[in-house]
Amino acid sequence: MASRGNFNSRLGFILASAGSAVGLGNIWKFPFEVGAGGGAAFLVIYLFFAFVLCFPVMTAELAIGRHTQSSPVGAFRKLGFSKWSGIGYLGLASGLLILSFYNVVAAWSFGYFFEMVVGNFEIGSHFSEYVSNWLKIGIYGIIFMSATAFIVSRGISHGIERAAKIMMPLLLSLIFGLIIYSLTLPNAMVGIQYYLLPDFSKVTGAVVYSALGQAFFSLSLGMGALITFGSYVKKETNLVSSAAIITFSDVCIAFLAGLMMFPLVAYLTKGDLAAINSISGEESFIFETLPAVFQSLGPVLGIVVGSIFFLLLSFAALTSTISLLEVPTAFLVDEKKIKRSKATWIVAGIIFLIGIPSMLGSGASEFFANFVKLPGSDSSLSFMSFVGVVGGSTFLSLGGFLISVFVAFIWRRKNFMDEVRVENETAVNGFLRQYVNFAIAYICPIILGIISLVTI
Ligand code: PFF
């Protein structure tokens, strides 16, 4: 059998996984969820889920992948439990659904980069026209998906690892540059206060649920992306500490995105808390509001800061779309023995087609804009929101639940621990490993089980 490829270095693996985690979820979704969920109150709940619940599930995914050297569907069969391959298929379905709408939002961001370069700040007030221009968004979408497919088709070390090694440092530099700049703006501290002072009165069941969904989505968990990445990791790599570093990096970048965003909103609203409150909780916030912030910086600075922001967002999206495309690609390579380059372009094409209703539902088509009527109310969900709720949150928490049950009670914790134990383990590593060992059986299945049940 031809070699499946491997990450060349631990750093490359960590950067690629952190790249998968850091994406639109951190820079587009996280700040508005924080805005709607009571600032730091949301942050605290989010951190709890990320470290207490997601970190053990991440370690489990990586361990399954590395032990079996296989993508999610084959992994369960290789462990001797073919009946559990359903988890792999569920992951595959989530991956296809997520990438189908994710590519559309990535296309918006990529298009906004060009709008900022030519100084078209008015675009923020014409956002709905912009997203209903299906031809334009379609072209950006094709370009974005092709860039993703190009990188994935080049394989693990030459494609995914190399791209992460270039894009991740760039992304961090852009974020730090923008944070420093936004902190110098008038009223920056009002924004920071809004962000960091908790308002627990806003915390409802729905907020807690969305913090969990956000943590799973942001850490790319529950759909086998990390089983797939784990399958390219060398035996001597320490998975527990790697998972801790990946979780920590993702959470840090989400936190930094907030530090960058809230001063900008406070600047625009001249420090008016009520206005910050109403603007920052909006889903379309970065597309509708931020261009006005950039405009107010004056033509030259506005173009520089605005272009950097949307470039940053596009890079963050690209390191995530790569990992989303890798899951079905690895499935075709491992299970159907299709050549990687061919497999990549086939799946990319199919996913682009699945994404067309999401693209049309943002304005061009009434039918896809009001795709699902919500029972007992006048409102409805667009195709994109529907796919987001199903693939991007329900399937992921269900996937996380099934993975933890599988590892704890079917594959067994002893085998799991044998896979992740390292020689000369440090005390901290030992503690984290023991925590993972406990949580995967007693914390993750219970909390994720309850949540999955409530959702379904
Ligand atoms: N973690 C990515 C983000 O926060 O934008 C989204 C994502 C990527 C979800 C890869 C799932 C996945 F497998």
From TrEMBL:
Keywords: Membrane, Transmembrane, Transmembrane helix, Transport. The chain crosses the membrane at residues 39-65, 86-114, 134-156, 168-196, 208-233, 245-268, 300-325, 345-363, 383-411, 435-456. InterPro entries: Na/ntran_symport (IPR000175), SNS_sf (IPR037272), YocR/YhdH-like (IPR047218). Its main location: membrane. Pfam families: SNF. It is found in: Membrane. CDD domains: SLC6sbd_Tyt1-Like. GO terms for cellular component: membrane. It is a multi-pass membrane protein. PANTHER family: TRANSPORTER (PTHR42948:SF1). NCBIfam families: Na_transp (NF037979). This is Sodium-dependent transporter. It comes from Aliikangiella coralliicola.
